[in-house]
Amino acid sequence: MRIALIQQHATADKKENLARGMAAVRTAAGQGAELISFAELAFEPFYPQRPSNGNHRDLAEPIPGPTTDAFCTLAKEWGVVIVPNLYERAGDETYDTSPVIDADGRILGLSRMNHIPDYESFHEKTYYTPGDSGAPVFSTAVGRIGIAICYDRHYPETMRALALAGADLVLVPQAGAVNEWPEGLFEAEMRVAAFQNGYFVALCNRVGQEELLEFAGESFVCDPRGNVLARAAKSEDDILICDIALDQVDSSHARTLFLPDRRPEMYASWLQAQPTWGREDSPPPSAQVSLREITEETSREIITLSRQMIPGQEKMVAANAVSIAQAHFNDKAWFRGIYANDTPVGFVMLYDDPDKPDFYLWRFMISGPHQGKGFGRQAMLQLIEHVRGRPNATELRASYVPVPGGPWPFYQSLGFEPTGEVEGGEVVIRLAL
Length: 433
What we know:
Layout: E1 2-7, H1 14-30, E2 35-38, H2 66-78, E3 81-83, E4 86-90, E5 93-101, E6 107-112, E7 137-140, E8 143-147, H3 156-164, E9 169-174, H4 185-197, E10 200-205, E11 207-209, E12 214-216, E13 220-222, E14 228-231, E15 238-243, H5 247-250, H6 253-258, H7 264-272, E16 289-292, H8 299-303, H9 320-328, E17 333-340, E18 343-351, E19 358-366, H10 375-388, E20 395-400, H11 408-413, E21 417-423, E22 426-432
Parallel strand pairs: 1-2, 2-3, 8-9, 9-10, 19-20
Antiparallel strand pairs: 1-15, 4-5, 5-6, 7-8, 10-13, 11-12, 13-14, 16-17, 17-18, 18-19, 20-22, 21-22
């Protein structure tokens, strides 16, 4: 199979970006390419360089939609498989998505990025909903194709799942910046994945200087033995053409040795274990949760929890030091440390005015090492019971930042409902007591 990776820059002019991409498809198809793949968000600026201002849904488009319609027509015209990547809107959710368009112009399906990062200049949690498409493999006119979108490539679980689903080739649409990773790691990670899983990997990287980032280019293809077969130019637009022999997949070390010798009956318990984030004393999910007064002696351990947030979450809630300071200057503030057994795991602060029927959840957080264990739910249930016992209480209000991966599903599961109000860019919700 001859594949082509379209490595192109993007400007704020989406129409021009798309036209350039379509021209590149015609060029690649004219050179005999049978499968053509693009980089991440190939036809628009890389929006996550800055956190969303709340209007991110307006930037996304449906699938099918204008972009996929254009490529479906092109795929049918040239008889090629095309895998673009775009910012998808599906209902109220937005995804980083690669649709797979077969050589007859049909959309076979789509792959959405499952793991969403958030760090400096990559504020993707404010734009993307975590994917719900799993790790599909598509039987196209030219072979069985899997996709690992950008951040997903760092997860061995994703790369192995694609192998077990029978992928011959894994496409990796990426937005990788210059000097983002240590020397050699950019290629090494994918070479190892190809070797361990017995398929070809074709990584197509974004290129060009944008507002805060310079994307590196240097797209490449490696075979099931981990050899790099071809590389694109650095820091400039390029069309990387590469011939791959799919019969190498069945004879690879992974398919003849590694995968047959797997012991999946052992792995379930390993992979279900929650990370301890380097803390051997991290309490188990069965720990007893309590809300405790914060004293001078315990204030430091509560304050330091804010330094242990999962990247991106620190933007969703004020630091505990700020909250405690505010509490000391507001006689309506009721605040507690959240403990699991005797380990501090979080912080909660309530605006408690007994003369009013509605109480307000001012602050709430569980630190990164202790998330996913049910501590937050137990703490919230205790807080709700506390409010129910207050004079005249009829409802508990809260608010949240409406970003993908935000806390709304958690509050919804506790019975909160939207009020229809928005304050300071945050959605206001209520729980009837």
